[in-house]
Protein backbone atom coordinates (compact mmCIF):
# COMPACT_ATOMS: atom_id res chain seq x y z
CA UNK A 1 0.00 0.00 0.00
CA UNK A 2 2.69 2.46 0.97
CA UNK A 3 4.00 2.56 -2.62
CA UNK A 4 0.89 4.60 -3.44
CA UNK A 5 2.02 7.50 -1.29
CA UNK A 6 5.24 7.79 -3.32
CA UNK A 7 3.30 8.73 -6.44
CA UNK A 8 3.66 12.13 -8.00
CA UNK A 9 0.51 14.15 -8.59
CA UNK A 10 0.88 13.57 -12.33
CA UNK A 11 1.15 9.77 -11.96
CA UNK A 12 -1.69 9.62 -9.43
CA UNK A 13 -3.88 11.69 -11.75
CA UNK A 14 -3.26 9.24 -14.58
CA UNK A 15 -3.93 6.20 -12.38
CA UNK A 16 -7.09 7.75 -10.94
CA UNK A 17 -8.40 8.51 -14.41
CA UNK A 18 -7.50 5.03 -15.65
CA UNK A 19 -9.35 3.53 -12.70
CA UNK A 20 -6.20 1.77 -11.47
CA UNK A 21 -6.58 3.33 -8.05
CA UNK A 22 -9.25 5.24 -6.18
CA UNK A 23 -8.77 8.44 -4.24
CA UNK A 24 -10.05 6.59 -1.18
CA UNK A 25 -7.23 4.04 -1.50
CA UNK A 26 -4.68 6.76 -2.08
CA UNK A 27 -5.97 8.79 0.85
CA UNK A 28 -6.08 5.80 3.20
CA UNK A 29 -2.50 4.91 2.23
CA UNK A 30 -1.40 8.43 3.18
CA UNK A 31 -3.35 8.34 6.45
CA UNK A 32 -1.63 5.03 7.31
CA UNK A 33 1.79 6.51 6.60
CA UNK A 34 0.98 9.60 8.66
CA UNK A 35 0.00 7.41 11.62
CA UNK A 36 3.43 5.77 11.51
CA UNK A 37 5.36 9.02 11.16
CA UNK A 38 4.77 10.96 14.39
CA UNK A 39 8.55 10.98 14.93
CA UNK A 40 8.81 13.44 12.03
CA UNK A 41 6.58 15.97 13.78
CA UNK A 42 5.17 16.95 10.39
CA UNK A 43 1.39 16.58 10.78
CA UNK A 44 0.25 18.50 13.85
CA UNK A 45 -3.52 18.30 13.31
CA UNK A 46 -4.76 15.21 11.47
CA UNK A 47 -8.09 15.28 9.68
CA UNK A 48 -8.78 11.68 8.58
CA UNK A 49 -12.58 12.06 8.66
CA UNK A 50 -12.50 15.12 6.43
CA UNK A 51 -10.00 13.38 4.14
CA UNK A 52 -12.05 10.22 3.64
CA UNK A 53 -15.22 12.22 3.04
CA UNK A 54 -13.48 14.37 0.44
CA UNK A 55 -11.95 11.25 -1.13
CA UNK A 56 -15.35 9.58 -1.53
CA UNK A 57 -16.66 12.73 -3.19
CA UNK A 58 -13.60 12.90 -5.43
CA UNK A 59 -14.05 9.27 -6.47
CA UNK A 60 -17.60 10.05 -7.51
CA UNK A 61 -16.40 13.04 -9.49
CA UNK A 62 -13.66 11.03 -11.20
CA UNK A 63 -16.18 8.37 -12.19
CA UNK A 64 -18.26 11.15 -13.63
CA UNK A 65 -15.29 12.23 -15.74
CA UNK A 66 -13.75 15.01 -13.64
CA UNK A 67 -11.16 16.92 -15.60
CA UNK A 68 -9.27 18.72 -12.84
CA UNK A 69 -5.82 17.19 -12.37
CA UNK A 70 -5.94 17.83 -8.61
CA UNK A 71 -9.14 15.81 -8.18
CA UNK A 72 -8.57 13.04 -5.64
CA UNK A 73 -5.02 14.12 -4.73
CA UNK A 74 -4.24 13.97 -0.96
CA UNK A 75 -2.41 17.03 0.35
CA UNK A 76 -0.96 18.39 3.56
CA UNK A 77 -1.76 22.00 4.43
CA UNK A 78 0.62 24.33 6.25
CA UNK A 79 -0.82 25.45 9.57
CA UNK A 80 -0.70 29.07 8.35
CA UNK A 81 -3.74 28.50 6.12
CA UNK A 82 -7.11 29.05 7.76
CA UNK A 83 -9.23 25.94 7.32
CA UNK A 84 -12.81 26.08 8.46
CA UNK A 85 -13.51 24.21 11.69
CA UNK A 86 -9.97 22.79 11.78
CA UNK A 87 -7.31 24.23 14.11
CA UNK A 88 -5.22 26.87 12.32
CA UNK A 89 -2.77 28.42 14.70
CA UNK A 90 0.35 29.35 12.73
CA UNK A 91 2.25 27.07 15.14
CA UNK A 92 1.75 29.69 17.84
CA UNK A 93 0.47 29.29 21.38
CA UNK A 94 -1.36 32.58 21.02
CA UNK A 95 -3.79 30.92 18.59
CA UNK A 96 -4.31 27.85 20.75
CA UNK A 97 -7.80 26.54 20.15
CA UNK A 98 -8.52 28.85 17.22
CA UNK A 99 -10.85 27.24 14.69
CA UNK A 100 -11.58 29.57 11.80
CA UNK A 101 -15.16 30.14 10.72
CA UNK A 102 -13.90 30.57 7.16
CA UNK A 103 -11.61 28.93 4.62
CA UNK A 104 -8.59 30.52 2.90
CA UNK A 105 -8.97 31.21 -0.81
CA UNK A 106 -6.11 28.85 -1.72
CA UNK A 107 -7.57 25.90 0.17
CA UNK A 108 -11.07 26.73 -1.07
CA UNK A 109 -9.75 26.49 -4.63
CA UNK A 110 -7.91 23.25 -3.89
CA UNK A 111 -11.03 21.61 -2.41
CA UNK A 112 -13.13 22.86 -5.32
CA UNK A 113 -10.62 21.21 -7.63
CA UNK A 114 -11.25 17.97 -5.72
CA UNK A 115 -8.04 17.78 -3.65
CA UNK A 116 -8.04 16.04 -0.25
CA UNK A 117 -6.95 17.55 3.09
CA UNK A 118 -4.99 15.06 5.20
CA UNK A 119 -4.28 17.55 7.98
CA UNK A 120 -2.27 20.58 9.05
CA UNK A 121 1.51 20.76 8.88
CA UNK A 122 4.13 22.02 11.30
CA UNK A 123 6.01 25.26 10.67
CA UNK A 124 7.97 27.97 12.44
CA UNK A 125 5.76 30.16 14.62
CA UNK A 126 4.05 32.73 12.36
CA UNK A 127 6.45 31.54 9.62
CA UNK A 128 9.34 33.27 11.42
CA UNK A 129 12.30 30.95 11.27
CA UNK A 130 14.52 28.85 9.04
CA UNK A 131 14.63 25.59 10.98
CA UNK A 132 11.10 24.87 12.25
CA UNK A 133 12.49 25.19 15.79
CA UNK A 134 10.23 28.08 16.83
CA UNK A 135 6.99 26.04 16.61
CA UNK A 136 4.72 25.65 19.62
CA UNK A 137 4.19 22.05 18.49
CA UNK A 138 7.90 21.21 18.79
CA UNK A 139 10.34 20.54 15.98
CA UNK A 140 9.54 19.05 12.62
CA UNK A 141 12.31 16.63 11.72
CA UNK A 142 14.02 16.03 8.38
CA UNK A 143 13.52 12.48 7.08
CA UNK A 144 17.09 12.70 5.76
CA UNK A 145 20.05 11.92 8.01
CA UNK A 146 23.78 12.26 7.46
CA UNK A 147 25.45 9.02 6.34
CA UNK A 148 26.23 6.89 9.39
CA UNK A 149 24.61 9.29 11.84
CA UNK A 150 21.29 9.29 13.62
CA UNK A 151 21.44 12.96 14.60
CA UNK A 152 18.10 14.70 13.97
CA UNK A 153 18.36 17.36 11.27
CA UNK A 154 16.15 20.33 10.54
CA UNK A 155 13.85 20.11 7.52
CA UNK A 156 14.37 23.87 7.18
CA UNK A 157 11.74 26.49 7.71
CA UNK A 158 9.39 27.98 7.93
CA UNK A 159 7.49 25.34 5.86
CA UNK A 160 9.40 22.55 7.64
CA UNK A 161 6.43 20.26 8.23
CA UNK A 162 5.39 20.57 4.58
CA UNK A 163 8.90 19.68 3.40
CA UNK A 164 9.25 16.77 5.80
CA UNK A 165 5.82 15.35 4.90
CA UNK A 166 6.43 15.48 1.14
CA UNK A 167 9.98 14.11 1.37
CA UNK A 168 8.82 11.24 3.59
CA UNK A 169 5.91 10.40 1.26
CA UNK A 170 3.22 11.08 3.86
CA UNK A 171 1.28 13.01 1.22
CA UNK A 172 1.59 13.63 -2.50
CA UNK A 173 2.25 17.35 -2.10
CA UNK A 174 1.76 20.19 0.36
CA UNK A 175 1.08 23.89 0.49
CA UNK A 176 3.79 26.19 1.74
CA UNK A 177 4.26 29.92 2.14
CA UNK A 178 7.38 31.92 1.42
CA UNK A 179 8.23 35.33 2.89
CA UNK A 180 12.02 35.17 2.64
CA UNK A 181 12.69 31.62 1.48
CA UNK A 182 10.27 29.55 3.55
CA UNK A 183 9.26 27.30 0.63
CA UNK A 184 12.56 27.09 -1.23
CA UNK A 185 14.98 26.57 1.67
CA UNK A 186 13.06 23.63 3.23
CA UNK A 187 12.52 22.15 -0.24
CA UNK A 188 16.30 22.25 -0.79
CA UNK A 189 16.97 20.72 2.65
CA UNK A 190 14.67 17.76 1.98
CA UNK A 191 15.27 17.01 -1.71
CA UNK A 192 11.90 18.18 -3.03
CA UNK A 193 10.66 20.91 -5.37
CA UNK A 194 9.36 24.21 -3.99
CA UNK A 195 7.92 27.12 -5.97
CA UNK A 196 7.33 30.66 -4.78
CA UNK A 197 5.12 32.35 -7.38
CA UNK A 198 5.22 36.00 -8.45
CA UNK A 199 3.83 38.28 -5.73
CA UNK A 200 0.11 38.59 -6.49
CA UNK A 201 -0.22 35.31 -8.41
CA UNK A 202 -1.83 33.54 -5.46
CA UNK A 203 -4.39 35.07 -3.11
CA UNK A 204 -3.22 35.72 0.43
CA UNK A 205 -6.77 35.86 1.80
CA UNK A 206 -7.21 33.57 4.79
CA UNK A 207 -3.48 32.91 5.13
CA UNK A 208 -2.31 34.18 8.50
CA UNK A 209 -0.24 37.25 7.65
CA UNK A 210 3.44 37.65 8.51
CA UNK A 211 4.81 40.36 6.16
CA UNK A 212 2.09 41.22 3.70
CA UNK A 213 4.28 42.78 0.98
CA UNK A 214 6.48 39.66 0.88
CA UNK A 215 4.21 36.69 1.71
CA UNK A 216 3.24 34.37 -1.11
CA UNK A 217 1.88 30.82 -1.03
CA UNK A 218 3.08 28.09 -3.34
CA UNK A 219 3.30 24.34 -3.94
CA UNK A 220 5.84 21.93 -2.40
CA UNK A 221 5.97 18.81 -4.53
CA UNK A 222 7.91 15.74 -5.68
CA UNK A 223 8.53 17.05 -9.19
CA UNK A 224 8.54 20.23 -11.24
CA UNK A 225 5.55 18.95 -13.21
CA UNK A 226 3.61 18.56 -9.97
CA UNK A 227 4.48 22.13 -9.01
CA UNK A 228 3.05 23.29 -12.34
CA UNK A 229 -0.15 21.29 -11.84
CA UNK A 230 -0.69 22.39 -8.25
CA UNK A 231 0.12 26.06 -8.92
CA UNK A 232 -2.63 26.04 -11.53
CA UNK A 233 -5.15 25.12 -8.83
CA UNK A 234 -3.80 27.61 -6.26
CA UNK A 235 -3.42 30.67 -8.50
CA UNK A 236 -5.88 33.27 -9.69
CA UNK A 237 -7.44 36.61 -8.98
CA UNK A 238 -9.34 36.99 -5.73
CA UNK A 239 -11.49 40.06 -5.06
CA UNK A 240 -10.81 39.50 -1.35
CA UNK A 241 -7.06 40.17 -1.80
CA UNK A 242 -6.54 43.58 -3.37
CA UNK A 243 -2.93 42.68 -4.22
CA UNK A 244 -3.88 39.55 -6.15
CA UNK A 245 -3.35 40.14 -9.85
CA UNK A 246 -6.33 40.21 -12.16
CA UNK A 247 -4.60 38.44 -15.02
CA UNK A 248 -5.33 35.07 -16.59
CA UNK A 249 -3.80 31.91 -15.13
CA UNK A 250 -2.06 30.06 -17.96
CA UNK A 251 -1.83 26.28 -18.21
CA UNK A 252 1.51 25.91 -16.44
CA UNK A 253 1.81 22.21 -17.22
CA UNK A 254 1.45 22.93 -20.93
CA UNK A 255 4.49 25.22 -20.64
CA UNK A 256 6.67 22.19 -19.86
CA UNK A 257 7.89 21.62 -23.40
CA UNK A 258 11.32 20.37 -22.40
CA UNK A 259 12.83 22.78 -24.89
CA UNK A 260 15.03 25.50 -23.40
CA UNK A 261 17.22 26.10 -26.45
CA UNK A 262 18.22 29.73 -26.75
CA UNK A 263 17.11 30.62 -23.22
CA UNK A 264 19.47 33.05 -21.55
CA UNK A 265 20.40 32.04 -18.00
CA UNK A 266 22.16 34.60 -15.81
CA UNK A 267 24.78 33.69 -13.19
CA UNK A 268 25.00 36.55 -10.66
CA UNK A 269 28.53 37.09 -9.43
CA UNK A 270 27.33 38.57 -6.14
CA UNK A 271 25.91 35.19 -5.10
CA UNK A 272 29.43 33.79 -4.84
CA UNK A 273 29.61 34.32 -1.09
CA UNK A 274 32.79 34.26 0.90
CA UNK A 275 33.13 31.03 2.86
CA UNK A 276 30.61 29.22 0.67
CA UNK A 277 31.26 25.44 0.84
CA UNK A 278 33.06 24.06 -2.22
CA UNK A 279 30.26 21.54 -2.69
CA UNK A 280 27.74 24.32 -3.21
CA UNK A 281 30.03 26.08 -5.70
CA UNK A 282 30.47 22.82 -7.63
CA UNK A 283 26.76 22.11 -7.66
CA UNK A 284 26.10 25.59 -8.98
CA UNK A 285 28.69 25.19 -11.76
CA UNK A 286 27.27 21.75 -12.60
CA UNK A 287 23.79 23.24 -12.83
CA UNK A 288 25.01 25.87 -15.30
CA UNK A 289 26.67 23.12 -17.37
CA UNK A 290 23.45 21.11 -17.40
CA UNK A 291 21.44 24.05 -18.69
CA UNK A 292 24.12 24.83 -21.27
CA UNK A 293 24.04 21.22 -22.45
CA UNK A 294 20.27 21.53 -22.81
CA UNK A 295 20.80 24.41 -25.20
CA UNK A 296 20.61 27.45 -22.95
CA UNK A 297 23.06 30.32 -23.13
CA UNK A 298 24.86 31.01 -19.84
CA UNK A 299 25.77 34.63 -19.17
CA UNK A 300 27.46 36.37 -16.26
CA UNK A 301 25.30 39.05 -14.70
CA UNK A 302 25.55 41.49 -11.85
CA UNK A 303 22.99 42.26 -9.15
CA UNK A 304 24.95 44.90 -7.27
CA UNK A 305 22.65 45.41 -4.28
CA UNK A 306 22.48 41.72 -3.33
CA UNK A 307 24.45 42.12 -0.10
CA UNK A 308 21.87 44.60 1.19
CA UNK A 309 18.93 42.24 0.70
CA UNK A 310 19.08 40.56 4.10
CA UNK A 311 19.41 43.78 6.12
CA UNK A 312 16.58 45.28 4.05
CA UNK A 313 14.45 42.23 4.74
CA UNK A 314 15.15 42.44 8.46
CA UNK A 315 13.71 45.93 8.54
CA UNK A 316 10.70 45.42 6.29
CA UNK A 317 9.55 41.99 7.45
CA UNK A 318 9.61 42.79 11.19
CA UNK A 319 7.97 46.18 10.54
CA UNK A 320 5.08 44.55 8.71
CA UNK A 321 4.94 41.74 11.26
CA UNK A 322 4.67 44.19 14.16
CA UNK A 323 1.58 45.68 12.48
CA UNK A 324 0.05 42.37 11.40
CA UNK A 325 0.57 40.73 14.78
CA UNK A 326 -1.00 43.63 16.68
CA UNK A 327 -4.32 41.79 16.27
CA UNK A 328 -3.25 39.09 18.74
CA UNK A 329 -4.40 40.90 21.83
CA UNK A 330 -6.48 38.36 23.71
CA UNK A 331 -9.78 39.95 22.72
CA UNK A 332 -11.16 38.34 19.58
CA UNK A 333 -9.50 34.96 19.28
CA UNK A 334 -6.90 32.68 20.79
CA UNK A 335 -5.17 32.88 24.11
CA UNK A 336 -5.88 35.39 26.87
CA UNK A 337 -3.61 35.50 29.91
CA UNK A 338 -5.01 35.06 33.41
CA UNK A 339 -5.13 38.43 35.11
CA UNK A 340 -4.19 39.56 38.61
CA UNK A 341 -6.34 41.69 40.87
CA UNK A 342 -6.45 45.24 39.52
CA UNK A 343 -5.04 44.42 36.06
CA UNK A 344 -6.52 46.59 33.32
CA UNK A 345 -6.66 46.16 29.59
CA UNK A 346 -3.01 47.16 29.00
CA UNK A 347 -1.81 44.49 31.42
CA UNK A 348 -4.07 42.02 29.62
CA UNK A 349 -2.47 42.83 26.27
CA UNK A 350 1.06 42.69 27.65
CA UNK A 351 0.66 39.45 29.56
CA UNK A 352 -1.29 37.77 26.75
CA UNK A 353 1.38 38.60 24.17
CA UNK A 354 4.26 37.67 26.50
CA UNK A 355 2.67 34.26 27.17
CA UNK A 356 1.40 33.61 23.66
CA UNK A 357 4.33 34.64 21.46
CA UNK A 358 7.59 32.68 21.43
CA UNK A 359 10.99 34.33 21.74
CA UNK A 360 11.70 34.81 18.01
CA UNK A 361 8.26 36.27 17.32
CA UNK A 362 8.58 38.65 20.29
CA UNK A 363 12.02 39.70 19.06
CA UNK A 364 10.80 40.45 15.55
CA UNK A 365 7.67 42.26 16.71
CA UNK A 366 9.81 44.47 18.93
CA UNK A 367 12.43 45.12 16.23
CA UNK A 368 9.57 46.05 13.91
CA UNK A 369 8.08 48.32 16.52
CA UNK A 370 11.44 50.02 16.96
CA UNK A 371 12.12 50.66 13.25
CA UNK A 372 8.62 52.12 12.87
CA UNK A 373 8.78 54.28 15.99
CA UNK A 374 8.89 58.06 15.91
CA UNK A 375 12.35 59.30 15.02
CA UNK A 376 13.52 56.05 13.42
CA UNK A 377 10.92 55.56 10.70
CA UNK A 378 12.94 57.44 8.09
CA UNK A 379 16.33 56.16 9.15
CA UNK A 380 15.30 52.51 9.07
CA UNK A 381 11.98 51.78 7.43
CA UNK A 382 12.01 54.34 4.63
CA UNK A 383 15.66 53.70 3.88
CA UNK A 384 14.95 49.97 3.64
CA UNK A 385 12.07 50.63 1.23
CA UNK A 386 14.42 52.68 -0.94
CA UNK A 387 17.07 49.96 -0.97
CA UNK A 388 14.31 47.49 -1.81
CA UNK A 389 13.48 49.58 -4.87
CA UNK A 390 17.16 49.37 -5.89
CA UNK A 391 17.22 45.60 -5.41
CA UNK A 392 14.21 45.28 -7.68
CA UNK A 393 15.83 47.62 -10.22
CA UNK A 394 18.89 45.31 -10.34
CA UNK A 395 16.65 42.47 -11.51
CA UNK A 396 14.74 44.64 -13.98
CA UNK A 397 17.99 45.71 -15.58
CA UNK A 398 19.09 42.10 -16.02
CA UNK A 399 15.74 41.02 -17.47
CA UNK A 400 15.82 44.01 -19.81
CA UNK A 401 19.10 42.63 -21.15
CA UNK A 402 17.20 39.55 -22.30
CA UNK A 403 17.93 37.20 -19.41
CA UNK A 404 15.12 34.63 -19.04
CA UNK A 405 16.07 33.19 -15.66
CA UNK A 406 18.80 33.40 -13.04
CA UNK A 407 20.54 30.36 -11.56
CA UNK A 408 21.80 30.41 -7.96
CA UNK A 409 22.32 27.98 -5.10
CA UNK A 410 19.15 27.59 -3.03
CA UNK A 411 20.89 27.58 0.35
CA UNK A 412 24.41 28.24 1.65
CA UNK A 413 24.61 24.72 3.17
CA UNK A 414 22.83 21.39 3.45
CA UNK A 415 20.41 20.78 6.35
CA UNK A 416 21.96 21.42 9.75
CA UNK A 417 21.30 19.63 13.02
CA UNK A 418 18.32 20.56 15.19
CA UNK A 419 19.71 22.57 18.09
CA UNK A 420 23.01 23.25 16.29
CA UNK A 421 22.19 26.93 15.89
CA UNK A 422 20.86 27.33 19.45
CA UNK A 423 23.82 29.39 20.61
CA UNK A 424 24.21 31.40 17.42
CA UNK A 425 22.99 34.98 17.43
CA UNK A 426 19.78 35.61 15.48
CA UNK A 427 21.67 37.07 12.51
CA UNK A 428 23.49 33.73 11.94
CA UNK A 429 20.16 31.99 11.46
CA UNK A 430 18.98 34.75 9.13
CA UNK A 431 21.89 34.00 6.76
CA UNK A 432 20.06 30.83 5.66
CA UNK A 433 17.90 33.02 3.47
CA UNK A 434 20.75 34.86 1.78
CA UNK A 435 20.02 33.44 -1.71
CA UNK A 436 16.23 33.41 -1.49
CA UNK A 437 15.29 36.69 0.17
CA UNK A 438 16.09 38.91 -2.83
CA UNK A 439 13.31 37.16 -4.75
CA UNK A 440 10.66 38.17 -2.20
CA UNK A 441 11.93 41.72 -2.05
CA UNK A 442 11.62 41.98 -5.84
CA UNK A 443 8.29 40.11 -5.98
CA UNK A 444 9.65 37.54 -8.46
CA UNK A 445 8.91 33.84 -8.93
CA UNK A 446 11.59 31.42 -7.70
CA UNK A 447 11.88 27.65 -7.68
CA UNK A 448 14.15 25.30 -5.78
CA UNK A 449 14.96 22.06 -7.60
CA UNK A 450 16.85 19.16 -5.96
CA UNK A 451 20.13 18.82 -7.80
CA UNK A 452 22.48 16.56 -5.88
CA UNK A 453 23.77 15.12 -2.61
CA UNK A 454 26.60 16.46 -0.50
CA UNK A 455 29.49 14.36 0.84
CA UNK A 456 27.38 13.37 3.84
CA UNK A 457 24.52 12.16 1.68
CA UNK A 458 22.23 15.15 2.22
CA UNK A 459 20.23 16.77 -0.58
CA UNK A 460 21.21 20.12 -2.07
CA UNK A 461 19.04 22.36 -4.21
CA UNK A 462 19.53 24.91 -6.93
CA UNK A 463 17.32 27.95 -7.32
CA UNK A 464 16.03 29.47 -10.55
CA UNK A 465 14.58 32.98 -10.47
CA UNK A 466 12.19 33.99 -13.24
CA UNK A 467 10.63 37.07 -14.78
CA UNK A 468 7.46 38.36 -13.12
CA UNK A 469 4.36 36.35 -14.17
CA UNK A 470 6.50 33.94 -16.21
CA UNK A 471 6.11 30.93 -13.92
CA UNK A 472 5.45 28.75 -16.96
CA UNK A 473 8.83 29.59 -18.49
CA UNK A 474 10.50 29.24 -15.10
CA UNK A 475 8.96 25.81 -14.55
CA UNK A 476 10.05 24.71 -18.01
CA UNK A 477 13.66 25.69 -17.29
CA UNK A 478 13.32 24.10 -13.85
CA UNK A 479 12.18 20.87 -15.42
CA UNK A 480 15.17 20.87 -17.78
CA UNK A 481 17.42 21.19 -14.73
CA UNK A 482 15.49 18.44 -12.95
CA UNK A 483 15.81 16.11 -15.92
CA UNK A 484 19.54 16.74 -16.29
CA UNK A 485 20.26 16.45 -12.56
CA UNK A 486 18.28 13.21 -12.38
CA UNK A 487 17.84 13.47 -8.62
CA UNK A 488 16.04 10.29 -7.49
CA UNK A 489 17.52 9.69 -4.03
CA UNK A 490 15.11 9.10 -1.16
CA UNK A 491 15.78 9.25 2.58
CA UNK A 492 16.31 5.84 4.22
CA UNK A 493 13.32 5.14 6.41
CA UNK A 494 14.01 5.34 10.17
CA UNK A 495 10.70 6.69 11.46
CA UNK B 1 22.80 53.58 17.42
CA UNK B 2 23.09 51.50 20.53
CA UNK B 3 20.07 50.33 22.43
CA UNK B 4 20.24 50.44 26.21
CA UNK B 5 18.03 48.73 28.76
CA UNK B 6 15.75 51.75 29.01
CA UNK B 7 15.13 51.78 25.25
CA UNK B 8 14.45 48.05 25.28
CA UNK B 9 11.90 48.62 28.04
CA UNK B 10 10.24 51.37 26.02
CA UNK B 11 10.08 49.25 22.86
CA UNK B 12 8.58 46.32 24.78
CA UNK B 13 5.97 48.69 26.18
CA UNK B 14 5.16 50.06 22.70
CA UNK B 15 4.82 46.51 21.39
CA UNK B 16 2.59 45.61 24.35
CA UNK B 17 4.76 42.67 25.35
CA UNK B 18 5.55 42.22 29.03
CA UNK B 19 9.29 41.74 29.52
CA UNK B 20 10.62 41.17 33.05
CA UNK B 21 13.33 43.58 34.21
CA UNK B 22 15.97 40.88 34.42
CA UNK B 23 15.38 39.94 30.74
CA UNK B 24 15.91 43.49 29.44
CA UNK B 25 19.75 43.52 29.18
CA UNK B 26 19.79 40.34 27.06
CA UNK B 27 16.99 41.72 24.89
CA UNK B 28 18.90 44.97 24.38
CA UNK B 29 21.92 42.87 23.32
CA UNK B 30 19.85 41.02 20.71
CA UNK B 31 18.43 44.28 19.37
CA UNK B 32 21.94 45.64 19.03
CA UNK B 33 23.08 42.58 17.08
CA UNK B 34 20.15 42.90 14.67
CA UNK B 35 20.36 46.67 14.33
CA UNK B 36 24.13 46.43 13.85
CA UNK B 37 23.41 44.15 10.90
CA UNK B 38 20.82 46.58 9.55
CA UNK B 39 23.26 49.52 9.82
CA UNK B 40 24.86 48.32 6.56
CA UNK B 41 22.01 50.01 4.74
CA UNK B 42 23.63 53.35 5.52
CA UNK B 43 26.33 52.51 2.95
CA UNK B 44 23.81 52.56 0.11
CA UNK B 45 23.34 55.71 -1.94
CA UNK B 46 19.57 56.16 -1.98
CA UNK B 47 19.61 59.75 -3.18
CA UNK B 48 16.59 60.39 -5.42
CA UNK B 49 15.16 56.87 -4.95
CA UNK B 50 11.49 56.63 -4.04
CA UNK B 51 10.60 54.19 -1.28
CA UNK B 52 8.87 51.14 -2.74
CA UNK B 53 5.13 51.13 -2.17
CA UNK B 54 4.08 48.19 -4.32
CA UNK B 55 6.35 45.44 -5.57
CA UNK B 56 4.20 44.65 -8.59
CA UNK B 57 3.13 47.88 -10.22
CA UNK B 58 -0.64 47.84 -10.10
CA UNK B 59 -3.51 50.16 -9.42
CA UNK B 60 -5.57 48.98 -6.54
CA UNK B 61 -8.97 47.92 -7.80
CA UNK B 62 -12.02 49.92 -6.84
CA UNK B 63 -15.36 48.50 -5.96
CA UNK B 64 -18.75 49.84 -5.09
CA UNK B 65 -18.94 50.92 -1.45
CA UNK B 66 -21.69 48.61 -0.31
CA UNK B 67 -22.20 45.90 2.29
CA UNK B 68 -21.31 42.51 0.82
CA UNK B 69 -20.92 40.39 3.89
CA UNK B 70 -21.95 40.12 7.52
CA UNK B 71 -24.90 39.30 9.69
CA UNK B 72 -23.30 36.48 11.68
CA UNK B 73 -22.42 37.84 15.08
CA UNK B 74 -22.23 34.34 16.54
CA UNK B 75 -19.47 33.35 14.11
CA UNK B 76 -17.53 36.54 14.78
CA UNK B 77 -17.64 35.85 18.51
CA UNK B 78 -17.13 32.08 18.28
CA UNK B 79 -13.37 32.22 18.95
CA UNK B 80 -13.39 34.96 21.58
CA UNK B 81 -11.79 34.11 24.94
CA UNK B 82 -14.65 36.00 26.62
CA UNK B 83 -17.85 36.99 24.81
CA UNK B 84 -21.03 38.04 26.57
CA UNK B 85 -24.43 39.17 25.34
CA UNK B 86 -23.20 39.55 21.80
CA UNK B 87 -20.06 41.52 22.67
CA UNK B 88 -16.35 40.91 23.18
CA UNK B 89 -15.70 41.27 26.90
CA UNK B 90 -12.51 42.89 28.21
CA UNK B 91 -11.27 44.13 31.60
CA UNK B 92 -12.48 47.54 32.67
CA UNK B 93 -11.11 50.23 30.31
CA UNK B 94 -12.45 53.45 31.90
CA UNK B 95 -12.92 54.17 35.57
Task: Tell me what you see in this structure.
- Chain B: Its EC number is 6.3.5.-.
- Chain B: It catalyses: L-glutamyl-tRNA(Gln) + L-glutamine + ATP + H2O = L-glutaminyl-tRNA(Gln) + L-glutamate + ADP + phosphate + H(+); L-aspartyl-tRNA(Asn) + L-glutamine + ATP + H2O = L-asparaginyl-tRNA(Asn) + L-glutamate + ADP + phosphate + 2 H(+).
- Chain B: Heterotrimer of A, B and C subunits.
- Chain B: Keywords: ATP-binding, Ligase, Nucleotide-binding, Protein biosynthesis, Transferase.
- Chain B: One of its GO terms (biological process) is glutaminyl-tRNAGln biosynthesis via transamidation.
- The complex is a heterodimer of chains A (495) and B (95).
- Chain A is of the alpha/beta class and 495 residues long.
- Helices cover 36% and strands 13% of the residues of chain A.
- Chain A has helices at residues 9-18, 23-35, 48-63, 105-112, 160-167, 184-190, 224-234, 278-293, 309-324, 345-356, 359-372, 377-400, 426-430, 437-441, 471-485, and strands at 43-46, 74-78, 116-121, 173-178, 193-196, 216-221, 264-268, 297-301, 405-409, 446-453, 459-466.
- In chain A, α2 (23-35) packs antiparallel against α3 (48-63), α5 (160-167) packs parallel to α6 (184-190) and α9 crosses α12 (377-400).
- Chain A is globular.
- Chain B has a domain at 5-43.
- Chain B has a two-stranded antiparallel sheet.
- In chain B, α1 crosses α2 (24-38).
- Chain B is flat, with a radius of gyration of 22 Å.
- Classes of the chains: A alpha/beta (495), B mainly alpha (95).
- Chains A and B meet through α9, α10, α11, α12 and α13 of A and α1 and α2 of B.
Provide a brief overview of the structure.
Chain A: Its EC number is 6.3.5.7. By secondary structure, chain A is an alpha/beta fold.
| Structural class determined from secondary elements of chain B | mainly alpha
CATH class descriptor of the domain at 2-262 and 412-430 and 439-485 in chain A? Alpha Beta
Most extensive protein-chain contact, per-chain counts: A-B, 73 and 51 residues
Q: Give me the count of strands of chain B.
A: 2
Based on DSSP secondary structure assignment, what is the total number of beta strands of chain A? 11
Report the average pLDDT across residues of chain B. 92
Active site (chain A): 78, 158, 182
Catalytic activity (chain A): L-glutamyl-tRNA(Gln) + L-glutamine + ATP + H2O = L-glutaminyl-tRNA(Gln) + L-glutamate + ADP + phosphate + H(+)
GO molecular function, one term (chain A): glutaminyl-tRNA synthase (glutamine-hydrolyzing) activity
EC number (chain A): 6.3.5.7
Amino acid sequence: MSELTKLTIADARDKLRAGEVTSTELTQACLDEIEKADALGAFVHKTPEVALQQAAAADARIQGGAENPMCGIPLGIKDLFCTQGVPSQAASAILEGFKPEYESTVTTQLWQAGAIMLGKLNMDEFAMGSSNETSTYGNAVNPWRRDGSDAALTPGGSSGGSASAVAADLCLAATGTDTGGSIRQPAAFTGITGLKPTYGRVSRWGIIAFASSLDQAGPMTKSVRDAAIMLGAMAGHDPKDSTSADIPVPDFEAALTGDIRGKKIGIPKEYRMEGMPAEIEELWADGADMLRDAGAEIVDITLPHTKYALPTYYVIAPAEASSNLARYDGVRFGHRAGLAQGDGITEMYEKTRAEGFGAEVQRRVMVGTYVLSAGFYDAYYNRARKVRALIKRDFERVFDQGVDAILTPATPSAAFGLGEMADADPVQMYLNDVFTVTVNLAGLPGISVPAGLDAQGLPLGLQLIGRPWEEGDLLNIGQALETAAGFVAKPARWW
Amino acid sequence: MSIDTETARRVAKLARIKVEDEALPALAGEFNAILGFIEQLNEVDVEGVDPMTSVTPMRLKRRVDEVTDGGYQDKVLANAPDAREGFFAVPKVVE
